[in-house]
Design goal:
- By secondary structure, the chain is an all-alpha fold.
- Helices cover 66% and strands 0% of the residues.
- The protein contains 14 helices and no strands.
- Helix 4 runs antiparallel to helix 5 and helix 4 packs antiparallel against helix 12.
- The longest helix has 31 residues.
- It is globular and about 75 Å long.
- About 6% of the residues have low confidence.
- It binds zinc ion.
- The site of zinc ion has 8 residues, from loops.
């Protein structure tokens, strides 16, 4: 028996509102490096704990008219807004996928559709949290991106075992590697491990290392007892000022970019070498092809890893080329991680297209600012998120268009 849409929608709305309530905690506490779980919700004015009946998503804020029951301190409208927005994302995605049917091959929600839905909704929640934090603090927390990427990897490993989830069409519902893209993904992953080890043992230097050390020293001077909180705020104009005032630290952006190129070199060469060795037609190639065809979880996993590498790689390449060209940092490493996570969930094509759609949202915002004479600049994370959401809804249309024009690697057997 199939459960009617209306029941799912009520359930998902409640789930979404509660998740939004949790996202509020994450967005408030994570940038301040406070624990997500403890203490329980309390008024920041009078420290009074908030009772469960005053903590019901969306509703409680309106019942209390945005004030603390005890000290009448104001609670921001952002709290019910984020809860409502999250609930609408939960319901909206269900509506688009299972009622409107924007993804042609999507099975019913109860027959495997929920696997794709879960992976996508976790990513959307992560994007929302990152966007809110980025808009306020000009930094994207990597941990949130990792959660989205992890959801993508798990979804892609499970999806191939559901006969209802189609993975062979160009508009596949979850990332799925061909022998070629799988080999490249495995090589790139091996290269990433090498790069991280080189970094750990000091054979590679992280970019902006001197600047970051300087920031930590500054903070220690200002606050000798406190833990140093090194949150790099490269895009914040205020942080640039402090960078300029820093004693004797001269940042050469081009030199820092060469460090990042050195970090990426093992990853790119790993991908190319594995592609040439395992993706070829020889003995090894045949052996690899058999593994990929038999071990479906591996094809899913590597498809997701491939998406992670390409999604992050496109942003990173833009960052390096832009920074080399203009001599100042273009795009943050937070943006790189964000789109890598999108690639792990939507696959390489979705992430790449979303990255190229994002500037149009940025342009729209810039024009709105011009028209309204408002000066508030916002960072790039929210635009990347909006681009991703648009691509999710229009995925079949866009991929269908490209599939007609080119052969899409990664989807061919
Ligand atoms: Zn209070």
């Amino acid at each position: 028996m199939e459960i009617p849409h209306a029941l799912w929608i009520v359930f998902l709305f409640a789930m979404g509102a509660s998740t939004g309530s949790f996202l509020n905690v994450v967005v408030y506490r994570l940038p301040l490096e406070l624990s997500i779980v403890r203490p329980a919700s309390h008024c920041t004015g009078c420290k009074h704990p908030i009772a469960w009946y005053d903590n019901i998503p969306i509703i409680s804020w309106f019942v209390l008219m945005g004030h603390c029951r005890h000290c009448r301190a104001t609670f921001s409208f952002r709290y019910p807004f984020v809860e409502l927005l999250t609930a609408m994302l939960f319901v909206g995605l269900y509506w688009a996928y299972f009622i409107e049917g924007v993804r042609s091959d999507m099975p019913l929600f109860g027959q495997g559709g929920y696997i794709v839905y879960s992976g996508h909704i976790i990513m959307l929640c992560a994007l929302l949290a990152c966007s809110l934090i980025d808009a306020e603090h000009w930094v994207i927390p990597l941990s949130v991106s990792y959660i989205a990427a992890g959801a993508g990897l798990i979804m892609s490993m499970i999806a191939p075992y559901w006969a209802t989830i189609k993975l062979e069409s160009p508009c596949e519902l979850a990332p799925y590697a061909s022998p070629g893209s799988g080999a490249a993904a495995l090589g790139a992953a091996a290269g990433l491990v090498v790069s991280l080890l080189l970094l750990k043992f000091g054979l590679l230097k992280p970019s902006f290392a001197e600047w970051e050390q300087d920031q930590i020293d500054d903070q220690k001077e200002a606050n000798p007892s406190g833990q140093p909180t090194a949150v790099r705020n490269d895009k914040d104009p205020a942080a640039k000022d402090s960078k300029g005032l820093s004693v004797g630290i001269d940042i050469n952006v081009r030199r820092e970019m060469l460090r990042e190129v050195a970090f990426l070199a093992p990853i790119v060469s790993g991908g190319v070498i594995f592609l040439l060795v395992l993706g070829g037609g020889g003995e090894l190639g045949r052996w690899w092809r058999e593994i990929i065809l038999e071990q479906k979880w591996m094809a899913g996993l590597l498809g997701s890893v491939f998406g992670f590498m390409i999604g992050g790689g496109v942003v990173w390449a833009t960052r390096i080329l832009g920074s080399l060209a203009f001599g100042r940092e273009a795009m943050g490493l937070g943006d790189v991680h964000l789109m890598a996570a999108v690639g792990a969930v939507l696959g390489w094509a979705g992430a790449t297209i979303a990255f190229f759609v994002a500037p149009f949202f940025g342009l729209g915002w810039a024009l709105t600012r011009l028209a309204l004479h408002r000066s508030r600049e916002i960072p790039y994370g929210p635009f990347l998120s909006m681009g991703t959401l648009l691509v999710m809804v229009l995925y079949d249309m866009i991929i269908g268009y490209f599939a007609g024009a080119f052969t899409i690697p990664g989807t061919m057997p």
